[in-house]
Amino acid sequence: MSSAGTSDAARVSRRDDAVRAAVEQGLIAPDRPVVALLDVAGIRASAAALHAAFDAVTAPGTPVLHAFAVKATPLVPVLRLLREEGVGAEVASPGELALARAAGIPPGRTVLDSPAKTPAELREALALGVAVNADSPQELDRIDAAVRSAATASPLGIRVNPQVGGGSIEALSTATATSKFGVALRDEGARAWIVRAYADRPWLTRLHAHSGSQGMPLALMTRGVAETYALAEEINRHVGRHQVDTVDIGGGLPVDFTSDAVEPTFARYARLLAEAAPGLFHGRYGLVTEFGRSLLAKHGTVLARVEYTKSAGGRAVAVTHAGVQVATRTVYAPGSWPLRIAAYDAKGRPRTGPDVVQDVAGPACFAGDLLAEGRALPLLEQGDHVAALDTGAYYFAHHYAYNSLARPGVYGYAGDAAGVRFAVVREPQTLDEIVTESGGPHAGSLTGL
Length: 449
Ligand SMILES: Cc1ncc(COP(=O)(O)O)c(C=O)c1O
Known about the structure:
The chain is of the alpha/beta class. The protein has twelve helices and 18 strands. The mean pLDDT is 95.
């Protein structure tokens, strides 16, 4: 077995151990029927693989900041763990910046990238020294004003849209001709405008592009980076000095949701980039990356009890406690976001038995609330458990409050021969919290108006 195969098998074995331990230790129980689990060793290993991938293709001494896209898993202990693994933060809202700060990520290792930054957000970022990529000419005007009124340590740049085209998931394709992100590089006059913008502002030292996420072919992502690098070279030639000193290549490496394999790897992507834009890696440019999904997806599992089973129209249906609240994208767009489901018995052991085509339904009150439709799995029984795999990014950390279903607790796991240990990442939401967040303290406000 290849070393990748060995580490994938080890991850699966850690996950199986964690599921069983979660049942045995009562993390999941009849009155706590859904829980989210994070594999701490797996997260550390992915961070190490990311560092190694870029170390292998960059000249010694090249400054490389790997900034985790906080939107993927906005949980403070996860950000702290990544900080310990030498990973910073890419943030896209005041909330995400607050999470990064709460995790202790220094402003100098934080990048702000949202498309709708308010003047106050910009002022805060510049006062802190957080790197900012302007998304539009109007935003650059605001940054101009801020830079004029106060000195800043923030590295500043412009986000461009290389317009290399979209991938298989339109909603995540940020390099289409009409994408809302960045300055559209191939639009008439845009390239000249950008070169002039840098020439007029010696403090613009970065260039940023993020060409898309899941569903993007690597060839297009690579072309997006190569075009951004070519633009950096053009700007520097035009101004006659090495003004753009750092290229932020965004994130976007897709994840294989169909198997336990980590494919494509960071190493493969880094090699492809180095082949497509060798000069970017020779040490003249610092690099920033902003990976999210590829760092965390494989390390998260939603585990839910099977409350009931039934049959309808000849179809076996398992009614579980994991649905739209923890797997929103999958439920609303199952074609784009299919998830693998693993079946476990009441004791948390992998369920065996002949495959039966069945639906794995969630708890929400609409017919489409299905984690998987017509899926062949060992026949689930009442009291069993189902695990929605690869849900560590953009799933349980993005709770959807339909039916006022509670946010599940999130627990990290680690283990050795002595057994599996869990740590709280986020407490389960209480009913009191749901009432408070739903206007409970203002119960009489409308009738008294
Ligand atoms: C600017 C930017 N950087 C990074 C990311 C992270 O992408 P991914 O999770 O696919 O790596 C996103 C995702 O939307 C993004 O918009």
